[in-house]
Design a protein that fits this description.
about 75% helix; 2 domains; about 0% strand; mainly alpha; about 150 residues; 6 helices; single chain
Length: about 150
């Protein structure tokens, strides 16, 4: 919420075109595609209709499976969410977290899951502390030129 508010306020204060260096290249590339698509509109081809029908059919199957089969793990919203750049790049991290959680629950049940929580929270706290230390060093020794600490885009 804070990042979105800051991006909007900075866009109004400095002009959004002047903030191009602070935004990921993928966002800028997509932003530049929109006027190209609208200015060069063309006839819809059979392949595009095919993909539209295939995607709609797949969403309908996933929706039916979600509500008809109690064990079905996939939600149809995944069709839309997985196409975004912010999910594609860190997908492996999410997959590994899910896999580890599933293995822990299957091997040791809820009891092992609860006993393992402090370990995984410690990993998370250590990661955040490392980023904070990195930011502090960057702030003290490189005050005018901040460096990119984490990049998921």
């Amino acid at each position: 919420m804070v990042s979105t508010t800051y991006a909007i306020l900075a866009g109004y204060a400095y002009g959004a075109q002047n903030l191009r260096d602070n935004y990921p290249a993928t966002i800028i590339g997509f932003y530049n595609l929109i006027p190209i698509w609208t200015n060069n509109a063309r006839q819809i081809t059979f392949t595009e209709i095919e993909f539209f029908l295939l995607g709609g059919g797949l969403v309908m199957v996933l929706t039916f499976a979600r509500y008809a089969l109690t064990w079905w793990p996939l939600h149809p919203i995944g069709m839309a969410v997985t196409a975004s750049q912010s999910i594609i790049l860190p997908f492996f991290t999410f997959f590994m977290a899910w896999l580890i959680q599933t293995l822990i629950l299957r091997i040791g049940g809820v009891q092992l899951y609860r006993r393992g929580q402090p370990f995984f929270l410690g990993i998370l706290v250590g990661y955040v502390m490392g980023l904070t230390l990195s930011y502090g060093v960057d702030l003290v020794w490189f005050p005018g030129t901040p460096h990119l600490i984490e990049r998921y885009y």
